């Protein structure tokens, strides 16, 4: 048995006992809470940067600015802040506290909370796999752009390239250019015809061949990922000092440059001009809830994994507040970076800002912004740093997503994998690379869209709803509060308890019901996804969520006893050694 630290702690470390016990010792009892065999963060900042790097991703740059102006500009900040305060941040705090207290990954943690819900851990790992299948492909696109940027004239500046068509229209630096519904900018044709080559695919039924250029880019991305994760948090904690901080340097440079462009003020006004009547629309509140949820990222198992390597008495409450604020402020500032450039483009085209702000999602980063950069002074420099920012933003989130799988599986099977981390990480990276091959085809962008919409969207929200319900109602809010008290020395306030018990689950249920009642048609590049592909999407979504009821049935069937006894065993957390209980006076073993 490895050597174990003994730490003097006040609080309840397992809490399966009764709520009130008498006769506690007034002196603290040495409690074994951490083993040397488990990795630890070298520095507190390694952890904070890892969490910030995971939470602040490409979606902060492309999704928030678009959703903000689409849903009322400055008025959208009201539902956004409310949803963050009452929904997103409490769930974020909950996951950090759970991971730090139980010190284990997303699968094995459930034996300490509510064993019958262990299928949630398996579902989380499958969703994380789906994310790795498409998210790293988007980073590979950015790497392709990065390589293409090393040129005195950026290749998406003109219409004189082999991939351009007669519809290519370059309006920068030219007068009396006619822009029609069939017109395509050089940047759009570079993205769709040279990077993706979607014109060589008729849709999901014929995705075409794998593009070797993108496969090489993806191979380089996964190579970086492997050597950042193979030794655990000791290595990834060092890498994030670059990948998590560099985007902020670049954002500052781009914001200053954008503010000096002609027409920039038009974009800022368009971004923040409040449309108060929008607050009466239900869709605005749904978008605010979904945005804050996917921005902070509870439910992906990443926060559980990263916080499980913290010291037991780390102030996870302060970490939750700080990292949430950084995340939300980054989204807000990114809006200025994007919309100053959109205002500049509107000035150049001599049109309104809304006419150039139609692109959303990846198109905003791969068409609109590169198009503006191409026509700036020093375009090569700004293109290089912009795509370096995109690559580093993406890598941080990939580190977190794969670490969630690694921690969860290794903690579930420690005897088999504890001394084989390098091999396990290599196998995982190979699986992710092979699973990504379909996204590298000519129609790969359609596969990316399908996986993003169905592999992650509704399933992860439903899973977090079950997680919040299991912790608050089955594990018990008082027991969970006592766990936090044992780490921090004080019990969470009434606000947090009410949010965990009622408001946050209602927040998640609201998103789920709204998405089911108002399904949106799935389209990309004027391609409307056929009905059969939507069915495939639902199957992909079900393939992760189904493990929750499957494990429930398995647990009930294989647990001996009557149905009542089986339910009692399946709902009761397993005790850990030493089993202890506490009141405000200290710690005492439960007999």
TrEMBL record:
Binding annotation for Na(+): 53, 55-56, 60, 295, 327, 393, 396-397
A GO molecular-function annotation: serotonin:sodium:chloride symporter activity
Covalent S-S links between cysteines: 159-168
Pfam families: SNF (PF00209)
GO cellular component: neuron projection; plasma membrane; presynapse
Organism expressing this protein natively: Cyprinus carpio (Common carp)
Keyword Membrane carried by entry: yes
Annotated localization: Membrane
Name of the protein in question: Transporter
Family of this protein: Belongs to the sodium:neurotransmitter symporter (SNF) (TC 2.A.22) family.
NCBIfam families for the chain: Na_transp (NF037979)
């Amino acid at each position: 048995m490895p050597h174990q630290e003994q730490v003097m702690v006040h609080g309840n470390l397992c809490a399966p006992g009764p709520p009130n016990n008498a006769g506690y010792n007034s002196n603290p009892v040495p409690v074994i809470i951490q083993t040397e065999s488990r990795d630890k963060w070298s520095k507190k900042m390694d952890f904070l940067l890892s969490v910030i790097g995971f939470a602040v991703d490409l979606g902060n740059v492309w999704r928030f600015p678009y959703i903000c102006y689409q849903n009322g500009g400055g008025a959208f900040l009201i539902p956004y802040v409310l949803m963050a305060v009452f929904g997103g941040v409490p769930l974020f705090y909950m996951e950090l506290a759970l991971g730090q207290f139980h010190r284990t990954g997303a699968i094995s943690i459930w034996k300490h909370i509510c064993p019958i819900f262990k299928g949630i851990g398996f579902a989380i790992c499958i969703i994380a796999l789906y994310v790795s299948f498409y998210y790293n492909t988007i980073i590979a696109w950015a790497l392709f752009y990065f390589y293409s940027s090393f040129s005195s004239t950026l290749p998406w500046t003109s219409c004189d390239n082999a991939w351009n068509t007669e519809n290519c229209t370059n309006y920068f630096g030219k007068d009396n250019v006619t822009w029609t519904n069939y017109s395509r900018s050089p940047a759009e044709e570079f993205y769709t015809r040279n990077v993706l080559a979607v014109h060589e695919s008729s849709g999901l039924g014929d995705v075409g061949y794998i593009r070797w250029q993108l496969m090489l880019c993806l191979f380089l991305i996964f190579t970086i990922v492997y050597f950042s994760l193979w030794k655990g948090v000791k290595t990834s904690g060092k890498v994030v000092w670059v990948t998590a901080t560099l985007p902020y340097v670049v954002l500052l440079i781009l914001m200053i440059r954008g503010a000096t462009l002609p027409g920039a003020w038009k974009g800022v006004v368009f971004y923040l001009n409040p449309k108060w009547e929008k607050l009466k629309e239900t869709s605005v509140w749904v978008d605010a809830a979904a945005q804050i949820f996917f921005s902070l990222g509870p439910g992906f198992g990443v926060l559980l994994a990263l916080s499980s390597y913290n010291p037991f008495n780390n102030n996870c409450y302060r970490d939750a507040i700080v990292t949430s604020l950084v995340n939300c402020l980054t989204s807000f500032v990114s809006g200025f970076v994007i919309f100053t450039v959109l205002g500049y483009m509107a000035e150049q085209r001599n049109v309104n800002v809304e006419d150039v702000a139609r692109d959303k999602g990846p198109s905003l980063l791969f068409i609109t912004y590169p198009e503006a950069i191409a026509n700036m002074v020093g375009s090569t420099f700004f293109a290089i740093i912009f795509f370096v920012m995109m690559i580093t933003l993406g890598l941080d989130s990939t580190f977190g997503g794969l670490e969630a799988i690694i921690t969860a599986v290794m903690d579930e099977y420690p005897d088999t994998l504890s001394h084989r981390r390098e091999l396990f990480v290599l196998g995982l990276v190979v699986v992710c690379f092979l699973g990504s091959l379909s996204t590298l085809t000519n129609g790969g962008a359609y596969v990316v869209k399908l996986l993003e919409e169905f592999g992650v969207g509704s399933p992860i929200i439903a899973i977090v709803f079950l997680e919040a319900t299991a912790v608050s109602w089955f594990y018990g809010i008082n027991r969970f509060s006592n766990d936090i008290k044992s780490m921090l020395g004080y019990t969470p306030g009434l606000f947090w308890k009410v949010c965990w018990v009622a408001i946050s689950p209602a927040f998640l249920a609201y998103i789920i019901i709204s998405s089911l009642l108002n399904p949106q048609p799935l389209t990309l590049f004027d391609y409307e996804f056929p009905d059969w592909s939507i069915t495939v999407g639902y199957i992909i979504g079900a393939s992760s969520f189904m493990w929750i009821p499957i494990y429930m049935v398995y647990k009930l069937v294989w647990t001996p006893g009557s149905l009542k006894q089986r339910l009692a065993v399946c709902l009761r957390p397993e005790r850990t050694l030493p089993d202890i209980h506490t009141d405000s006076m200290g710690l005492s073993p439960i007999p």
